[in-house]
């Protein structure tokens, strides 16, 4: 039995640790330590399809190094190719000189998981359909009233604008028939705003403002 067995594997589409760099590195280690090539580079198989390539070196004090690639796998080999990965690891662990195409340690037959309705006894809920209806707003009515200066804190006339929506406000209805009881959502929106703006300025305010500007200019000089 070999004292030390090493498996170096890469996904052949791994852009992080590419298989060419690892294969060249192990080949250099083998030559520097007088290892020999027991098995030249050859294919290995999974479900009668090519699963990758492998090569075996041996030498030193019962050292054995297998360099292997997994076809179609990236950096996370077991995630990308779970079936070939299981067969590869099982052969490496359970055999002294593994043949990675050997499928007796694992069952390579694809077995899809059963549906929830078959395993749990409960039927799957169909997708929920949604029906919506929206009633559009009628035209907005607006009125403008002009009042005397008594309606504003500032002397002078002022303009008051009032905007309101018609009583026929928009209604949005959403019905979900597949739920235990239909759900209806009604939304009512109303807007009313009043804006008052002064239109004139008294003579006293003009004089006070001019005097303030004069004093400020004098201080800055």
From TrEMBL:
Organism annotation: Panagrolaimus davidi
Ranges annotated as biased composition (Low complexity): 122-189
Domain of life: Eukaryota
Protein name: Serine carboxypeptidase
GO BP: proteolysis
Start and end residues of each stretch annotated as Disordered: 113-189
SUPFAM superfamilies according to UniProt: alpha/beta-Hydrolases (SSF53474)
Transmembrane feature ranges: none
Pfam families: Peptidase_S10 (PF00450)
UniProt xrefs under Gene3D superfamilies: alpha/beta hydrolase (3.40.50.1820)
PROSITE patterns, per the entry: CARBOXYPEPT_SER_HIS
MF GO annotations: serine-type carboxypeptidase activity
Family: Belongs to the peptidase S10 family.
InterPro entries, alphabetized: AB_hydrolase_fold (IPR029058), Peptidase_S10 (IPR001563), Ser_caboxypep_his_AS (IPR033124)
